[in-house]
Amino acid sequence: MFKEQVIMALESLGANKFRSLLTMLGIIIGAGTLVAVLSLGNSLQGQVFEQFIDLGTRRIAVGPGDPKAKGARDIPGYGLLSVQDYATLERVVNERPDLFRTIAPEVAVSTEVRAGTVAVKALLVGTTDQYRLVQSVPMEYGRFLTPEDEAAGSRVGVLGSQIAEDLFGTDPAALQAAIGRVIEINGQPLEVIGIIRQNGGPYATDGRVFAPVSAVRLRLVGNLDIPGRGMQMTGILIGIQSEQVVDAAEAVISSALRSTRQVPEGAINDFRLDLPTQALSVLSGINGAITGFIAVVAGISLVVGGIGIMNIMLVAVTERTREIGVRKALGASDGDVLGQFVLEALAISLVGSLIGVGGAIGLVTLISSVAGIAAGISWIGVGLALVFASAIGIGFGFYPARRAAMLLPIEALRYE
């Protein structure tokens, strides 16, 4: 009996192809939108995450502790970072390659940079070649620092895009010609070896000048040492292997620093760890909210499609009143009639959702090939589209089906 009802439902769809297609339109749009949004949303989220990673979210930044924090100890130089801390963390990085990729120092000093008669304020950052392995440093012209620069304490510098434009102008030819020119920092000469492409954002380098940390300490700035602890550092950047090891990496870093800095049990950390998880969670929340909003719009489209199904099924019940009367006169029960019309509504909804899913898969594939986005089909979205469409078909088809089932045979046969 069920098989016969399914065949009759499909035959009913075929008998009025154009009307059935118009009825399915809302379901087609809703199901297709749901699958396309979830598929493209997941891939775009992955790409945005990768861009954030390129900017430096796959790293932990160690900074000085706040001397005014509640629980801070009253000791000289509380919270300051030194080369001793760097040596401790460098050892930890080498011992745990499963957690860490590399480490880079930061010795930052606000200073004046001069090229001829033009002078601008900039942040001079002493670091090593490992810096670009921790954070993205896209070079526009020239090169970044090398181990040889650090070993020799070379007076060389890499300019952020804003500093380069302030000193040499915005003309690309002038910027390219700046490579090899000598600028002054605190009256000391510095040869420009590279200019970084503009990369605004939370870890922007636009207003910075990078130089070997050895040159910053010995030749450009002067005494940066903490009595008894060696060179003072503004920050220490540690590259981690992935976002999944953030918690483990944080625990290892905290334990090592608390031990070497002799932080008593129960005392607060006299250093600060900036983790990437907050930025990533905010990004994920924004992406989820946008995807959810569009998915809700797709759901509304499905509901509108359900209203269309109800409307056309009510018309179908009116048109087939005599047919219903004949079937009941020949022995069909109320349940048989109810099931027949619910199946027809379900068939309209399912066929429409399958068309929408097929269209969405084609659209996602096309966008992937044209835009170069590695977008995979969200099979969860496909499942949700089919389940929602089925529920809407049954839900909105039940009232017309029940109305058909409640018709009295004698009244139905008499209907013109």
TrEMBL record:
Residues 20-253 form the MacB-like periplasmic core domain. GO terms for cellular component: plasma membrane. It comes from the Bacteria. Belongs to the ABC-4 integral membrane protein family. Its main location: membrane. The lineage of its organism: Bacteria, Bacillati, Chloroflexota, Chloroflexia, Chloroflexales. The chain crosses the membrane at residues 21-41, 293-317, 338-367, 373-399. GO terms for molecular function: transmembrane transporter activity. Pfam families: FtsX (PF02687), MacB_PCD (PF12704). Keywords: Cell membrane, Membrane, Transmembrane, Transmembrane helix. It is a multi-pass membrane protein. This is Uncharacterized protein. It is found in: Cell membrane.
